[in-house]
Specification:
The complex is a heterodimer of chains A (298) and B (311). The two termini of chain A are 41 Å apart. Chain A folds into two domains: 2-55, no CATH class; 80-293, MetI-like (MetI-like fold, Orthogonal Bundle), CATH 1.10.3720.10. By secondary structure, chain A is mostly helical. The longest helix of chain A has 35 residues, at 21-55. Chain A contains 14 helices and no strands. By secondary structure, chain B is an all-alpha fold. Chain B has helices at residues 2-21, 31-37, 40-60, 77-83, 86-119, 124-132, 139-149, 155-159, 175-199, 204-212, 217-228, 230-246, 249-254, 266-275, 280-306. The radius of gyration of chain B is 27 Å and the shape is globular. The chains are: A mainly alpha (298), B mainly alpha (311). At the A-B interface, helix 1, helix 2, helix 5, helix 6 and helix 7 of A face helix 1, helix 2, helix 3, helix 5 and helix 6 of B.
């Protein structure tokens, strides 16, 4: 209680002379905190703003005025980048990859987490150790044999092939997250459904899923974000230009000979916008998932 | 009457628990099998994509495989080549430098940011959101941003006098720290969120007691905050070590290991060997090296966890 009070507003009525020294020091340190935190915020956001400005300038203006606000706002950069850089095709492919990965991961991890949390899976602890170990293995270790295997199975250079890889990479984390989520929920509703004679799949579908929906939202967000931003698998397993995800399309656009920094910036903003919007709209779920899962991202 | 009304639901709850713990005979026999059926998709995908190719990689590490066709067993030749290659050791050194950088800079920024956020009342959520935005950005996007900004012919360089004509990614001495700087920009906000979540679990009574004892801000951070978030701190430190040895994206996108191998790490070296130089067996040996390192770190992690984080 006293901590909350001491962190609250200083009383306005008190004259400066009567403010105890400790309180004065705390006020000073809090002002310093705010200054440093604001500085860090500028460090995090300013580069993004500068690139947004760059995306709205003509090439000539960018050369003359690299950092400032654009004088002639050029929205056409976005449509030019969309078509010239294959960004449109890349966005479509990435949407397919992210969507397929979300569906796959939710099904795979949902079933597994349900078995571990609710069906008293024999050997469940062994499975947890297995999943932690598998997610620690470096992609580089199995990349080359996987590439060979995928060419044999005709899964190389195909979107479903990459979706399967993403499902395998992201489902261990998703399973552990959903399991811990399910363990924390009471079993009473499910027991009631079972007593009423519902089958195991029906219990999962009608009862558990409804209760665990927030956990699934978190898993879907993290799996979707990871698939959208992924680069190494995308550039290795998708060769044709019309199948490339947006991350690879953007990379090739930037590496290409037409070094138009305005268009490249516009393309980067296009790729960023869907995830930024999703994050800002649902950030509580993102942050909850990352803080509890702790293994999110790459 | 009233006694019964209160008692009945409680007893029903007990019965449900009993039915759960002591299963009905006959139904129980197949229960283990049915629960494993739910695991089939996870295990199938995992075995196909991760486990089987990883085991294959262990085999190929001892062959002269090119990535296509058959492979001939060559014993430890790949490892001999790897451990006598100057390029490999140089790449390892860069990984070590990368690890040291990421154990210090983003950790310090994350701890400082989270601690200050835990001490303020207003704008906490806003700051947290702003810090976290770079983390949701793709590697490609943040690389593009910083390549634009640090381009000697435009961006900050041309706007701020003393930075003009400094080619951050083209200079052999500056390239590695510059790429690390870009990666850190995207990364440190994640650490703020992780540390802040851990710090909010700290018992506020401890801070109150410390204040009464006259501990200043620094003392509170050092004696209360840090010990209370030790599990998260250790977990992230060990993960940092693993991730630093596996780093690939930023270096591949920004410098491709150049200029003149100045940013070559084991991850990028391995990728070049496997996909450009057709030395898949040799690359598998490097992959095995990375895999063994990662497993050693995970074993250390589980050991420390079992001992309750008291190092």
């Amino acid at each position: 209680m006293s901590l909350a009070a001491s962190l609250g507003r200083p009383e306005r009525t008190a004259s400066r002379h009567y403010v105890p020294r400790a309180l004065q020091a705390r006020r000073l340190s809090r002002a310093v905190f705010y200054l440093v935190l604001a500085g860090l915020a500028i460090y995090a956001i300013a580069p993004l703003v500068v690139v947004l400005f760059a995306a709205l300038k003509s090439e000539q203006e960018l050369a003359a005025n690299p950092l400032g606000f654009p004088h002639h706002v050029l929205w056409s950069n976005f449509s030019a980048a969309w078509s010239q850089g294959n960004i449109g095709t890349g966005m479509r492919n990435s949407a397919i990859l992210a969507g397929g990965t979300i569906v796959g991961v939710c099904i795979i991890a949902g079933l597994a987490a349900y078995a571990m949390a609710r069906l008293d899976l024999p050997g469940g602890n062994g499975v947890i150790i297995y999943l932690v170990g598998v997610s620690a293995l470096p992609i580089q270790l199995f990349l080359v044999p996987l590439f060979y295997l995928w060419s044999h199975l005709r899964l190389y250079n195909s979107l479903p092939g990459v979706i399967i890889i993403y499902c395998a990479l992201f489902s261990p984390f998703a399973t552990l997250l959903l399991r811990s989520f399910m363990v924390s929920l009471p079993r009473d509703y499910e027991e009631a459904a079972r007593i009423d004679g519902a089958s195991e799949l029906r219990v999962l579908w009608r009862v558990t899923l409804r209760l665990v929906a927030p956990g699934f939202l978190t898993v879907a967000l993290i799996a979707g974000l990871s698939a959208w931003n992924e680069f190494l698998i995308g550039i290795t397993f998708l060769q044709s230009t019309n199948l490339q995800p947006v991350s690879v399309a953007l990379y090739s656009f930037q590496q290409g000979y037409s070094q138009n920094d305005s268009l490249i910036s516009a393309a980067g903003i296009i790729m960023l916008l869907p995830m930024l919007g999703l994050f800002l709209a649902l950030q509580r779920h993102f942050i909850a998932g990352i803080a509890t899962g702790g293994l999110g991202g790459d | 009457m009233t006694f019964r009304l209160v008692d009945a639901p409680a007893r029903r709850g007990q019965d449900a628990k009993a039915a759960d713990g002591v299963p009905v005979p006959g139904k129980h026999r197949w229960r283990w099998l049915r629960s494993w059926v739910f695991m089939v998709p996870l295990l199938a995908v995992n075995l196909l994509v991760i486990v089987v190719p990883s085991l294959e990689a262990v085999y190929y590490a001892f062959t002269n495989w090119t990535g296509y066709g058959s492979a001939k067993f060559t014993g430890f030749a790949n490892f001999r080549m790897m451990f006598t290659s100057g390029e490999f050791w140089q790449a390892c050194l860069h990984n070590v430098l990368w690890t040291i950088f990421f154990l210090i800079v983003p950790m310090a920024m994350g701890l400082a940011g989270a601690f200050m956020l835990s001490r303020i009342t207003r704008f906490r959520a806003l700051f947290r959101t702003l810090y976290f935005i770079p983390y949701v950005m793709a590697t490609v996007v943040s690389s593009i941003i910083w390549e634009n900004l640090l381009n000697p012919n435009g961006g900050i360089g041309s706007a701020i006098g003393f930075l003009a004509n400094v080619s951050f990614f083209g200079n052999q001495k500056l390239a590695l720290p510059s790429v690390a700087f870009v990666n850190n920009w995207q990364w440190w906000g994640f650490l703020v969120v992780m540390f802040l979540a851990a710090m909010q679990g700290t018992n506020p009574m401890l801070y109150e007691a410390a204040q009464i004892d006259g501990a200043r801000t620094w003392g509170q951070f050092w004696h209360i905050t840090l010990p209370s978030i030790r599990p998260v701190l250790m977990f992230l430190a060990l993960m940092t070590i693993i991730w630093s040895f596996l780093v690939f994206d930023y270096i591949y996108i920004i410098t491709q290991g150049g200029p003149n191998n100045a940013t070559q790490v084991v991850g990028t070296l391995m990728y070049t060997e496997a996909f450009s130089d057709q030395a898949a067996g040799y690359a598998s040996a490097m992959g095995l090296f990375l895999g063994v390192l990662a497993i050693i770190v995970v074993i250390i992690y589980t050991r420390i966890r079992r001992r309750g984080w008291n190092i």
